[in-house]
Design brief:
The protein has 668 residues and is of the alpha+beta class. The strands form 6 sheets. It has a 5-stranded mixed β-sheet. It binds 2-(butylsulfanyl)adenosine.
């Protein structure tokens, strides 16, 4: 066979195999026998081996798993991958419904979906070809796991249309695959996976794709990420479209008009869940209308237009053998129950949070008691109640200590607080916990500095304050346990890189009371430099939207401390950036053409594309919504604009073509 013939044959085999694959893994309706499939695959692999120049990344033969990687590459998500707020009962669901309806000026319907217990991934297609798959990571940055995702047979390597689109979904391990994997591991004396979710995550976070290829993973796609295509008005329409493109969507979704229908759906699946071939941990409820979604918007972490109902936690009975006390970064002393290990909802539980003294008193929890514990989702297990009938007479009521377990200072209970606090500013536990917070993902995001390393740095007297981190050198780090040349170099460059971070990360990392990541963002955008913020008084702060008295007070008091002023000075000396790196709302001139305007985009935008255009308008102070109404100020209509253009014209809304839009942007 010459190259030309081989090429034709290969193309044909690939098309056929893609189609069979789709029928088998996505539609669950195979049209040929496994034997015939294997034959064709063998033929393809043989031809590709004979003509290596014809090998391509998107060939179905590539699913078997290629060469291992050296390390994972980071991927920036163009649109953040958010998580969802939780509902635990009917009241929470009705509250959600009320908030949604109050925030919307039109009737709302919902789409209910099963909440698949796996891990969220993002898949990118360019001109219909699968080019990249990534984990969610911290929502902003994930890891490139394309090599492993290619082995998941229900992920199309090629779409039914040549779309450029990013989609999101949940990769998971079906119950049966999980059981047989664990059976096999047990036989080999290997450690077992606690649950299908851990097994799926463990499989996808392997450098060697041959492992993932053997693990029978599957996926359901549930949303569209970055996409410049035609606007679809409803989430349900997007689900249909995803299916058309060849993705595997979960068939159990349902559109509901009322919250009562949602609650019925929840009840149905609470009962029926054991019959599914995969694990679910709840129900996701999403507003169906995209323009209502846009109007409701997001909080820092999650959309206001969706919620996750979590199934009730599983309970178990065990013995409480001790109560451990730990000191957090704000000096709060937290008691934790040490338990006789017990299995709950698939994992072994050894510890449970006791929250505070009042809770221990209220439930009268004593060391030696038999207790009921529960585990809700990812949350740390808690003690529900004591089985007093099983209590022996010799058990004493538990007393909280009067002195800090780490530094021995007096503990105080501040007015109106339930917590006991160590107020020694030099308490080593607080400094250590403060540092753990400082390096954490949403703060300075220094990779390679886990709790264990930080604990060692303290033990070896290498760091006492945040500033000390930036003085560490190679020799010092090499002394630490389990730190080789490579990890030391990585760590030092991560520390160095963190110096460039924008101000909001530093502000959040400092651990000022009541300054979470959202407030830190607001402050950084408003003041732009730490110097300006340090000069602000209470009034200046309270004048900012979203900053109340309590927060303002805490910020002023924090920066008044002399040790804080010298810490900031020291950080600057060490080269840490104390300025805001992003764009600020104030830079948007008041006479921006979009300031305060509600804009709708329609048709094909050639130059900027839909999401880029949206971003531009938003940075210039405008709001972009999905559908035309009386509230629309401006419609930007690209090529092939349809019904929206008609509606806008009939309502007398101002309309621009793409050229005018581009001209205006260029003038800005
Ligand atoms: S929608 C912004 N739909 O649950 C909304 N999530 O906290 C993004 N999940 O990280 C999520 N099944 O990993 C959505 N049908 C479903 C889901 C689902 C599982 C996971 C997902 C997400 C988490 C929500």
């Amino acid at each position: 066979m010459d190259t030309h013939q081989a090429k034709e044959k290969i193309t044909k085999l690939r098309e056929e195999l893609n189609e069979y694959n789709y029928e088998y893994y996505v539609l669950d309706r195979p049209t040929i026998s496994d034997h015939e499939y294997d034959e064709k695959m063998r033929e393809l692999i043989q031809l590709e081996n004979e003509h290596p120049e014809l090998k391509t990344e998107d060939s179905p033969s590539q699913r078997v798993g290629g060469e291992p990687l050296d390390e994972f590459v980071k991927v920036q998500h163009k649109l953040p991958m958010l998580s969802l707020g939780n509902a635990f009962n009917e009241t929470d669901l009705r509250d959600f419904d009320r908030r949604v309806r109050e925030g919307s000026d039109q009737p709302v319907s919902y789409v209910c979906e099963l909440k698949i217990d796996g891990l969220a991934v993002s898949l990118t297609y360019e001109n219909g070809k699968f080019v990249r798959g990534a984990t969610r990571g911290d929502g902003k940055t994930g890891e490139d796991i394309t090599h492993n995702l290619k082995t998941v047979k229900s992920i199309p390597l090629k779409l039914q249309q040549d779309e450029t689109i990013e989609v999101r979904g949940e990769a998971f391990m079906p119950k049966r695959s999980f059981d047989s994997l664990n059976d096999a591991r047990a036989q080999k004396g290997e450690e077992l996976f606690a649950n299908p979710r851990n097994a799926a995550a463990g499989s996808l976070r392997q450098l060697d794709p041959k492992i993932a290829a053997k693990r029978n993973l599957d996926i359901f796609i549930y949303s569209v990420g970055e996409w410049q295509g035609e606007h679809l008005n409803a989430h349900s329409e997007r689900l249909d479209y995803l299916k058309q493109l060849g993705f595997k969507t979960n068939p159990e979704w349902k559109r509901c008009e009322t919250i009562d229908q949602v609650i019925d759906y929840v009840k149905h699946w609470t009962e029926d869940r054991p019959h599914l071939s995969y694990e679910i941990d709840g129900i996701v409820i999403k507003v169906d209308q995209i323009d209502v979604q846009d109007a409701l918007g997001f909080t820092a972490k999650s959309p206001r237009w969706a919620i996750a109902y979590k199934f009730p936690a599983e309970e178990a009975i065990t013995k409480l053998v001790d109560i451990e006390l730990s000191v957090g970064r704000t000096g709060v002393v937290t008691p934790t129950a040490i338990l006789e290990p017990v299995k709950v909802a698939g994992t072994t539980v050894k510890r449970a949070s006791l929250h505070n003294e009042d809770l221990i008193q209220e439930k009268d929890i004593r060391i030696g008691d038999t207790v009921v514990i529960k585990k809700a989702g990812d949350i740390i297990p808690e003690v529900v109640r004591v089985i007093t009938e099983k209590r022996t007479e010799d058990l004493e009521p538990f007393q909280m200590p009067t002195h800090c377990p780490e530094c021995g200072s007096d503990l105080v209970r501040l007015e109106e607080e339930v917590a006991l606090r160590c107020i020694n500013p030099n308490c080593p536990a607080q400094l250590r916990e403060g540092l753990i917070h400082f390096v954490s993902r949403n703060a300075m995001n220094i990779d390679g500095l886990g709790e264990k390393v930080i604990a060692q740095l303290f033990k070896e007297d290498l760091v006492h304050t945040i500033a000390d981190l930036y003085k560490l050198n190679k020799e010092q780090l090499l002394q630490l346990e389990r730190m080789g040349e490579k990890s030391v170099n990585n760590l030092l460059s991560a520390i160095e890189k963190s110096k460039e971070n924008s101000l909001e990360r530093l502000l959040f990392g400092l651990g000022i009371r009541y300054v979470g990541s959202k407030v830190a963002d607001t402050l950084a955008q408003h003041f732009k430099t730490i110097d300006a913020l340090m000069k602000a008084d209470k009034e200046d702060l309270e004048a900012i939207q979203d900053i109340g008295e309590k927060v303002a007070d805490s910020i002023v008091r924090y920066f008044q401390k002399p040790q804080v002023a010298s810490l900031i000075e020291e950080l600057k000396q060490l080269g840490i950036n104390t300025k805001y790196n992003g764009i600020t709302m104030e830079e948007i001139t008041e006479d921006s053409p979009f300031a305060g305007k509600t804009v709708v985009l329609t048709g094909k935008l050639e130059v900027y594309g839909r999401s880029e255009a949206k971003k531009k308008i938003e940075t210039l102070g405008g709001k972009v919504t999905g559908s035309v109404s009386k509230k629309t100020d401006l419609l930007i209509a690209g090529e092939d604009a349809g019904s929206k253009l008609e509606k806008a014209t009939s309502l007398g809304v101002e309309v621009w073509d793409e050229n005018r839009f581009i001209r205006v942007l260029q003038e800005e």
